[in-house]
Design a protein that fits this description.
Bound molecules: NADP nicotinamide-adenine-dinucleotide phosphate
Distance between the termini of chain A: 9 Å
Strand order of the largest sheet of chain B: 2-3-1-4
Strand content of chain A: 15-25%
CATH architecture of the largest domain in chain A: 3-Layer(aba) Sandwich
CATH superfamily of the largest domain in chain A: NAD(P)-binding Rossmann-like Domain
Number of helices of chain B: 4
Helix content of chain A: 40-55%
Oligomer: heterodimer
CATH class of the largest domain in chain A: Alpha Beta
CATH architecture of the largest domain in chain B: 2-Layer Sandwich
Shape of chain B: elongated
Strand order of the largest sheet of chain A: 3-2-1-4-5-6
Number of domains of chain A: 2
Largest sheet of chain A: 6 strands, mixed
Number of strands of chain A: 12
Structural class of chain A: alpha/beta
Order of helices and strands of chain B: EHEEHEEHEEHE
CATH class of the largest domain in chain B: Alpha Beta
Largest interface: A-B, 28 and 20 residues
CATH topology of the largest domain in chain B: Alpha-Beta Plaits
Structural class of chain B: alpha+beta
Number of domains of chain B: 2
Radius of gyration of chain B: 20 Å
Strand content of chain B: 35-45%
Helix content of chain B: 25-40%
CATH superfamily of the largest domain in chain B: LOR/SDH bifunctional enzyme, conserved domain
Distance between the termini of chain B: 26 Å
Chain lengths: 328, 163
């Protein structure tokens, strides 16, 4: 299958390395970063382009752009892994729509387009008989979308509870384990490369809320928006609060919760017993799905990382190849 | 409150009737097989809601029916949850915050542990709330949520056991 990739950051590079190193049957025919692009219908030499990017900071021809790749390259499936803009979803949404319009499948790790335009993108995709998949947008390597859509097919999902932000979980774990203050733990998260220079989206609970919106719309198709989520972050938490929880064999975690029957859609720090299945440590993510037939299922795994996110992306790509594109 | 009695025929009905007569509310009737030296005996446990001052009246009514109450559980509020609170807890009238739960009659703050950091920094407190049942607990947490909003306090609620 021919794939085009937009974005050569942590995720894009992870995908390229895996496609190059593993025998997946995927050929990269188009590639773009923010400054340049290249296309080759016979397949781009991945090692060369990775080292070129590392040496000079851009991957290809500066007179070409991501738009050229989307509109003109010869590919079956577009992998969209450019930065998330949670307010506008651009430029990713534009890229995705153009690819769908050309009858190409799309796989993305970008939360913006999926959180903002899920219904529209899905209906456009149906019209053009292509698939749009976004496993990597929620829970990193955890195959939560596959579990929901395929493994739990036929179940009625009653509720979901999740730890969807690794940065917050890391901070809370460190505050509880070492008695660090919130500021000290945040600093450590930065030093470890878990937190962005501007951690607002993470610590205010917005990133977790965006992922909750994506999960909710995937499951219940009610077209909820970020504004519908009641959000409380972790930035006001004190070390004392964690110690008080600890004294009762409990701890505090940032929990995203959706229970439509009870009108609950919220992200907030919560007190949980330490032996609760959702209490994972460090930057791990965890998601509990409660359904009518299967009961409760909890998935735990790495919520971010170059290879881990590549795993989710490649899972989607191969699923589409096997389910839709056979014989094309 | 819990009443325990032996399960001989007719006793259960005889015990249940007076409960409604004194305005009590039955929450659960639990049959238990208790190991006794003289063999297994079926015991019945009745969990009920009742105004404290009517307990004496109820017991004499039940006795009058010839039912033997083995034990009266003192635990009034069976459902327990821990909530953590952060903010200027003292300066926003802690007494009032606790009162708003206590005055409901169906829920109570039964423990309060407070940590005071340096002046002007927010303090943290742990409240143990007890309520008669899950619905009342929800109500009580709802009240607390309102109070917290009003007083600009952050409350960290328990995650309800799933399932
Ligand atoms: N990192 C993770 O673990 C993770 C996990 C789940 C989801 N995600 C999501 O995956 C996406 C990519 O994440 P990342 O960590 O790889 O980000 P990143 O390291 O910031 O890389 C972004 C890449 O996109 C390129 N880019 C920016 N604007 C572009 C444009 N207009 N056209 C084409 N390329 C453009 C950048 O080009 P330059 O190289 O020229 O700057 C860069 O190569 C984001 O949406 C993120 O939210 C990431």
């Amino acid at each position: 299958m021919k794939i085009a990739i937009l974005g050569m950051g942590a995720v894009g590079r992870g995908i390229l390395e895996m496609v190059d190193g593993k025998d997946l049957g995927l050929t990269v025919t188009g590639l773009a970063d923010s400054k340049s692009a290249l296309m080759d219908k016979d397949g781009i030499h991945i090692e060369e382009v990775l080292s070129a990017k590392q040496e000079r900071g851009y991957c290809g021809d500066k007179s070409l752009s991501a738009t050229d790749i989307v509109e003109r390259a010869d590919y079956d499936l577009l992998i969209e892994v450019t930065p998330t803009d949670a307010k506008t979803g651009e430029p990713a949404t534009g890229f995705i729509k153009k690819a769908i319009g050309r009858g190409k499948h799309v796989v993305t790790s970008n939360k913006g387009p999926i959180a903002l335009h899920y219904a529209e993108l899905q209906s456009q995709a149906r019209k053009h008989r292509v698939a749009v998949r976004y496993e990597a947008t929620v829970g990193g390597a955890i195959p939560v979308m596959h579990t929901l859509q395929h493994g739990l097919a036929g179940n009625r999902v009653i509720a979901i509870f999740g730890i969807l932000n690794g940065t917050c979980n890391f901070i809370l774990t460190r505050m509880a384990a070492e008695g660090l203050t919130y500021d000290q733990a945040l600093l450590e998260a930065r030093e470890m490369g878990y937190a962005e220079a501007d951690p607002t989206y993470d610590v205010k609970g917005i990133d977790a809320a965006i992922k909750l919106v994506i999960l909710s719309n995937t499951i219940w198709k009610r077209n909820v928006k970020l504004n519908d989520v009641e959000i409380t972050g972790i930035d006001m938490l004190t070390t004392d609060a964690l110690r008080l929880a600890e004294e009762q064999h409990c701890t505090i975690r940032l929990i995203a919760e959706a229970v439509p029957e009870r009108g609950i859609l919220r992200v907030a720090p919560r007190v949980l017993p330490k032996n609760h299945p959702l209490v994972v440590n460090g930057s791990l993510n965890a998601i509990t799905i409660e359904t009518d037939m299967a009961g409760e299922i909890t998935l735990i795994g790495k919520g971010a990382g170059s290879r881990e996110t590549a795993s989710a992306i490649i899972g989607d790509v191969l699923f589409i190849r096997d389910a839709h594109a056979r014989g094309h | 409150m819990k009443l325990e009695m032996k399960d001989t025929p007719g006793q259960l009905v005889a015990a249940l009737k007076p409960i409604s007569d004194v305005g009590g509310n039955i929450i659960a009737v639990i049959h238990q097989r208790e190991e006794k030296t003289d063999g297994d005996v079926l015991a019945v446990q009745i969990v009920l809601e009742l105004q404290e001052q009517r307990l004496g009246e109820l017991l004499s009514l039940i006795k009058g029916q010839g039912v033997n109450v083995v034990r009266i559980g003192k635990e009034r509020l069976l459902y327990k949850q821990t909530v953590i609170m952060i903010g200027h807890i003292m300066h926003t009238d802690l007494g009032d915050t606790v009162d708003r739960i206590d005055c409901t009659g169906y829920a109570e703050v039964t423990e309060l542990t407070m940590v005071m950091p340096a002046i002007s920094e927010p303090s943290s407190a742990r409240l143990v709330i007890r309520a008669v049942n899950k619905e009342d607990m929800e109500q009580a947490l709802g009240i607390l949520r309102g109070v917290a909003k009003e007083k600009n306090l952050l409350i960290i609620e328990p995650l309800e056991e799933i399932g």
